[in-house]
Specification:
Aspartate Aminotransferase, domain 2, 7-stranded mixed beta sheet, 5-stranded mixed beta sheet, 2 domains, alpha/beta, globular, single chain, Aspartate Aminotransferase, domain 1
């Protein structure tokens, strides 16, 4: 499938050949175990927890193809993918470098849980490569970043991260959930491992929780080995929905890129809005970097309103199309206050340092018609 475009690979890569009993869609294999073929290794046995049913294998191959990796792996959630990857890379008391604005679940993992295992993290300003070397420890093993930060939608010095890791022998890990392989393929830029919360754009329909890891065969095999012991396996029914969702990723992302840019431009024109975070806007400080790296700027934006928390809450109550719910990446537009959802577990003082105020509003734009979305926000904001 290497000669085909991403749009075509999303549909055809990894699909069984020949088709199973002629089925155009891969069937759901509701079998916990499979007949032995005299395997020599425990991890080669065909068993759901070992992530090697036909439903898993299709996804592994499709993920590897669309992210341009040697191997892919699915997990029971995005946090399962992140946790298993970090435990594999940092096991034995390793030290992690990480950007200072992370998804709340990841932040809590590296600040609360991993230290109990002797794994510590130093947070860095992703825009200041000159400051990174001072944070190195003898036991530093990895550098963890996000392609776009949640929810401030910043784009850091990603190329510098790769160069820094190669210079110092570190494993570079990037959460590519916000950008998706449609907009950005980190492995092509030199990153070692890519993780996703596949709950979001890869599935795209707000009906499963899943995760993914993509990288070299050697690294993914090590992560798979640990995953098999931790048991964070994706159910075959969820695998089926994940696989089905991926086939429309290109169509959905094209609309969500466009919708988010349209809505960001509208919000930026309003007097009630004091600032919009979206790298597609020319006024965004990371616009040039994002333009050089990404095919599109994603479907998430955030903004501040005059009037602070009360104005934010009033807007969320007044809009009709967006659903006030956590997560992102589905076909429907979602709206939320990160301080009450994705980053509610991050201490307020730390949130404020990275720009996540109590009044910040995040919008994960869906695939509705852009005119309807703009009209809805216009009526919610009132006359300009």
């Amino acid at each position: 499938m290497a000669d085909y475009t991403l749009d075509t690979q999303l549909i055809h890569a990894g699909e069984p050949r020949p088709r199973i009993e002629g089925a155009v869609s891969t069937p759901i294999f509701c079998s916990a175990n499979f007949e032995s073929q005299n395997e020599s290794s425990y991890h080669d046995l065909r068993y759901i927890r070992l992530n090697n049913t036909p439903n898993h294998i299709v996804l592994h191959e499709k993920l590897a193809a669309v992210e341009k990796g040697e191997a892919g792996l699915v997990t029971s959630s995005g946090m399962a993918a992140i946790c298993t990857t970090l435990l594999t890379v940092l096991g034995g008391g390793g030290h992690l470098l990480a950007q200072n604005c992370l998804y709340g679940g990841t932040h809590s993992l590296v600040t609360e849980d991993l230290p109990e295992l002797g794994i510590n993290t130093t947070f860095l300003d992703i825009h200041k490569p000159a400051s990174w070397e001072a944070a190195l420890h003898p036991e530093t093993k990895g550098f963890y970043v996000e392609s776009m930060t949640n929810p401030t939608v910043q784009v850091g010095e990603l190329t510098s991260v790769v160069e820094f890791c190669k210079k110092h022998g570190l494993i570079s890990i990037i959460d590519n959930t916000f950008a998706t392989p449609f907009n950005f393929r980190p492995l092509e830029h030199g990153f070692d491992l890519v993780v996703h919360s596949a709950t979001k754009y890869l599935n795209g329909h707000s009906d499963i929780v899943a995760g993914a890891v993509i990288g070299s065969q050697e690294m993914v095999d090590k992560i798979l080995h640990r995953l098999n012991h931790l048991g964070a396996t994706l159910d075959p029914h969820a695998c089926f929905l994940f696989q089905r969702g991926m086939k429309t990723l290109a169509l959905r992302m094209e609309r969500q890129n466009s919708n988010a840019l349209t809505l960001a431009r509208f919000l930026a024109s309003r007097d009630e809005v004091t600032g919009v975070n979206y790298p597609g806007l020319e006024s965004h400080p990371d616009h040039q970097r994002a333009s050089s790296l990404f095919r599109g700027f994603g479907g998430v934006l955030s903004f501040e309103l005059r009037g602070g928390v009360e104005s934010a809450q009033r807007l969320i109550e007044q809009v009709k199309l967006p659903v006030n719910a956590p997560s992102l990446g589905g076909v429907e537009t979602l709206i939320t206050q990160p301080c009450r959802s994705s980053h509610s577990g991050v201490p307020r003082e730390e949130r404020l340092k990275i720009g996540i105020t109590d009044s910040l509003v995040r919008v994960a734009v869906g695939i509705e018609h852009p005119d309807d979305l703009v009209a809805d926000f216009k009526q919610a904001l009132g006359p300009n």
